[in-house]
Known about the structure:
The protein is an alpha/beta fold. The chain folds into three domains: about 15-90, Udp-n-acetylmuramoylalanyl-d-glutamate--2,6- Diaminopimelate Ligase, Chain: A, domain 1 (3-Layer(aba) Sandwich), CATH 3.40.1390.10; about 110-315, 3-Layer(aba) Sandwich (UDP-N-acetylmuramoyl-L-alanine:D-glutamate ligase), CATH 3.40.1190.10; about 325-450, Protein-Tyrosine Phosphatase, Chain A. Helices cover about 30% and strands about 20% of the residues. It is built from 16 helices and 21 strands. It has helices spanning about 20-25, 65-70, 95-105, 120-130, 150-155, 175-185, 200, 205-210, 215-220, 230-235, 290-305, 310-315, 345-360, 380-390, 415-425, 445-450, and strands spanning about 15, 30, 35, 40, 50-55, 75-80, 85-90, 110-115, 140, 165-170, 190, 225-230, 245-250, 255-265, 270-275, 280-285, 325-330, 335-340, 365-370, 395-400, 430-435. It has a six-stranded parallel beta sheet with strand order 9-10-8-11-12-13, with helices on both faces. The chain has a five-stranded mixed beta sheet with strand order 2-7-6-5-4. Helix 10 links the parallel strand 12 and strand 13 (about 245-250). The radius of gyration is 23 Å and the shape is globular. The two termini are about 45 Å apart.
Amino acid sequence: MPEWSSSACDDSGMDFTASRLAANLGGTLWGDDAGISGLAIDSRILQPGQLFAAVEGDRDGHDFVSAARQAEAGAVLVNRVLDDGPSIVVPDVSMALTRMAGLARRRLPEFVVGVTGSVGKTTTKDLLAAVLTERFRTAASPESFNNELGVPLTLANAPDDTEAVVVEMGARGHGHISHLCSMALPTIGVVTTVEAVHTEYLGSMEQVALAKRELPECLPPDGLAVLNADNPLVAAMAEHTRAATVFFGGSSRANVRATGIEFDADLRGRFRLESEWGSAEVEMGARGAHNVSNALAAAAVALASGVSVEAVAAGLSSPIGSKWRMELLRTPDGVVVLNDSYNAGPASMKAAMLSLAELAPPRRIAVLGTMAELGDRAAEEHRQVADLAKAHGIEVIAVGTDLYARPADAADADEAAELLLQRLGESDADTAVLIKGSRVAGLEAIADALGAR
């Protein structure tokens, strides 16, 4: 297979005057003109000179304009004038962000990678950023910024000298990924897997696949679709893209695969990376058997883009950057804590439970919050996790749900932490604890309560 490559463009960076940006967004500038460099929607992390977009969501961003001014925002993007500072006034702030994403995209290189899938998007994005950085100046979505707000932030805040951009793309309905693609214009698309996630909104697994398939469908004819050969619903997407296709996984169809897979006591994998571009020994920075597939996805993109197999192996050895994902911690008393609390669906929950079962301590406790947005599948999917726990001798502390074949043991994370501390007793050093649930469960505070570091 010939090497797929792209070149960086030489357009100007995402630096605007407020007046120029107002004109491009179809808005009106109130107050004095000002220089703007970058974008923020959270006044707490805004950097001096950035544009603060007052997005209206669970909280109205207009309530934080004063805080953004104090943080030295270059200007604010609002739907009404609130003070005398530089303000770009538009009818709809969210729609203006979509237009701003288009402005940002035009000054970036052709080399933009979109990453989607039911599970593993963020880890694959992190691994991709690590391996592409071995050759290219790479920008990537922070944390899980994968929606209509996160994509403009990623594009607008990419440095001027960026050569490759990795954009995570999530979907809770049909048309979501197509909309994100209209902003990011990816030339490479990765689909990690299709599993029972967001079925409350999307329905069947086939409908989930249709939503994820929008990414390969949106790729240009000279682009590249990187697909999971081991998931039939993903592999079938090769018939629905104009782009060239590379497969990763364990099947004979895969162009990039892993052999001789084994894991150390801290759940880090070692394997031989085999591909049409060469082979290398890999020691993974990410933990868990399920992350081997994500590593192969990242490797496939990098190898097809001209990164050497040796550099790919080096990049895959980097620890992943996003928090609360398969973090292995220890308390002062010797408890091993597997903090995978960022989010949860059936596939990732089962993978985390199996990882807990592989840890050395003989006593294993899983502190489990609900798996949200499963609709009619919720009862059965939670029961399967309960059965898996029983099969592996794992004690369960159910938080805020009675779906794990038992009444809820704790109402919230605070109660769960207290109960867990009581159960640990004197056998701390012989215990491993998994913390996992959907974002709504907010279980990440439990690791802090244990003093895990």
